Amino acid sequence: MRLTIPTWLTLARIALIPVLVVVYYLDYRWTNIAATAIFALASITDWLDGWIARRYQQFSRFGAFLDPVADKLMVSTALVITVQHHHTVWMALWASVIIGREIAVSALREWMAELGLRGKVAVAMVGKVKTTVQMIALGFLLYREPLWGMPIFLIGEWLLAASALLTLWSGFEYLRAAWPSLTAEDEKS
């Protein structure tokens, strides 16, 4: 197995997960800034590894497998620590929607791949918009404090709600694309 630069960036993103958790819970005034910086760095590596892979043709099967896993691990971790810190019904609902959709879409992609139809559930533009909104929302929620008079946490809450709605939309799009394959066997019976 050859480790490419994009794969190293993905591995670094996974390694940042426990660092994010530890830094978030440290008892210092600056930990929200540090946790936000760690999450932002992880988000940038997510974009950068894809860009490098496409630009320099540095694709690998291991990297293709690991990249979405790293994304889901980082997002799930940020959601869990955010909900733990700010445990409201809405925050738990949005986090559940996002994590639940990630599990469902991962299972759907795996099943479609087994059928040789993975291309039918490829990432669409709504998924990319969802990811961008989600990353900004989580960065704001990790930061928590007002900045230049702006209620950063409140903005993060609203962006997370928007992200959850985009998550449902993109999940529906995946399901709609896969639906003929999901129901084909039932119709033959």
TrEMBL record:
Protein name: CDP-diacylglycerol--glycerol-3-phosphate 3-phosphatidyltransferase
Domain of life of the organism encoding this protein: Bacteria
Keyword field contains Transmembrane: yes
Keyword list, A-Z: Lipid biosynthesis, Lipid metabolism, Membrane, Phospholipid biosynthesis, Phospholipid metabolism, Transferase, Transmembrane, Transmembrane helix
Gene that this polypeptide is encoded by: pgsA
Pathway: Phospholipid metabolism; phosphatidylglycerol biosynthesis; phosphatidylglycerol from CDP-diacylglycerol: step 1/2
Organism: Thermomonas beijingensis
Ranges that cross the membrane: 7-26, 121-142, 148-169
Annotated InterPro entries: CDP-alcohol_PTase-I (IPR050324), CDP-OH_P_trans (IPR000462), CDP-OH_PTrfase_TM_dom (IPR043130), CDP_ALCOHOL_P_TRANSF_CS (IPR048254), Phosphatidylglycerol_P_synth (IPR004570)
